[in-house]
Design goal:
With about 190 residues, this protein is an alpha+beta fold. The protein is built from 4 helices and 7 strands, in the order αβαββαββαββ. A hairpin with a 3-residue loop joins β4 and β5.
């Protein structure tokens, strides 16, 4: 009985996540998603986010953070940025079980800053990389790994709202890097 109850709980959680993603995507595409950027200490925000969400993982891994360049405040919407960061880090952990710790690197440049989330996991087959930002797309090598196929689509929308760009570099069997670049000043 307990075994069946646990399975039901997992399925309810999956359905809830799917519905939340669909609702977020719908609000974003209808331009109904609130966007309230404020000056934020990015490194402190990321450190807090990692501590709150990824400090005691079941498999003993953690998320490594490194910083290059002169640290400064950046304009971002903390709620939307939490979705961006959470999706990228969750994917890095989910697709790299049993491999080295994922890394988050913040690089402050002259006119913009870059956040790179790198994992050493299963990677994405080259022929499927062009479809990554399509709704409900999942690469063939992800069967058996939970996901809705909406996370990257939502991420890209939220990155665009911040006037940023997102690029994914991946080698199957070696890992993936999600590279997100933002301007310091939002117009």
């Amino acid at each position: 009985f307990v075994k069946h109850w646990d399975k039901i709980g997992v399925q309810i959680s999956r359905l809830t996540n799917l519905m939340n993603d669909v609702l977020i995507l719908g609000r974003t595409e209808a331009n109904k998603m609130p966007f309230n950027p404020e000056p934020v200490d990015l490194v402190a925000f990321i450190m807090r986010f990692i501590e709150q969400n990824y400090l005691s993982l079941e498999d003993g891994r953690t998320v490594m953070l490194s910083v290059e360049g002169s640290r400064r405040n950046v304009g971002l919407d903390e709620n939307l940025f939490s979705h961006i960061l959470g999706n990228a880090i969750s994917n890095a952990l989910k697709y790299s079980k049993g491999r080295p710790n994922p890394e988050v690197k913040v690089h402050y440049e002259e006119d913009s800053y870059t956040i790179t989330i790198k994992d050493y996991g299963i990677g994405i087959p080259k022929k499927e990389q062009a479809n990554l930002f399509e709704s409900f797309f999942r690469a063939q090598n992800t069967s058996g790994i939970e996901g809705t196929g909406l996370g990257l689509v939502i991420m890209k929308q939220f990155v665009k709202m911040h006037q940023g760009t997102i690029k994914i570099e991946s080698i199957e069997g070696k890992g993936t890097s999600v590279i997100i670049r933002f301007p310091y000043q939002l117009n």
